[in-house]
Amino acid sequence: MRYIVLLAILLTTGIVKAQLTEDNATKTRYFEDQFYLGLSYNFLVNHPEGSNQRNLSYGLQGGIIKDIPLNGSGTKAIGIGVGLALNSYYSNLVAEEIQDEIVYRLDDDITRSNLETHLVEFPLEFRWRNSTADDYKFWRIYTGIKAAYLIGARSKFVDDDIKEGFYNTDLERFQYGLTLSFGYNTFNFHAYYALSDLFNGTAMVNGEVLKYTPLRVGLIFYIL
Length: 224
Fold this sequence. Notes:
The protein is mainly beta. The protein has one helix and 13 strands; from the N terminus they run αβββββββββββββ. It is elongated, with a radius of gyration of 26 Å.
């Protein structure tokens, strides 16, 4: 009888120890799955001669990122996400649709000229942070690449009593670039530099191919 009792005690101790080990491992390995919202100021790099930006060019982005830890402590991870973005670029570049053809010109006297894009984005990040399973306020550095697919774009201009807009097909459908985010807790600096041109290579102004390259700088908010 005492051997049966001893065996029962040993088995119970082993089960409890295994359960505690499993619980600790689960607690150590945590996931920073996050929603994100971003606001940026949009620059256009590689201006053709005579081109310049005007007004406030802005960008909005939002989505969700799935966190995949790379180490037991969770301080290093890969983030894979999907989201939507809207970007506006105000400049003196005027786009007009003339006989089913898009024609571009530079006009400093126009009231307002805007190019607006709508994209589905796919961020891929390498993530470093000093967080723990119980600490939700931490420093982070996230860097990586972002691919995007253009689902719509409109060119609009306003001048005196004239207001025109149309769907612009001269833009690059598949876009991609480098990203960097760093900061503490919810508020973080964010930057995106495109490695692809904004236009698809067919758009020209004054005999020069448009080689605009977007650069976006602003804030991004991560929400658990």
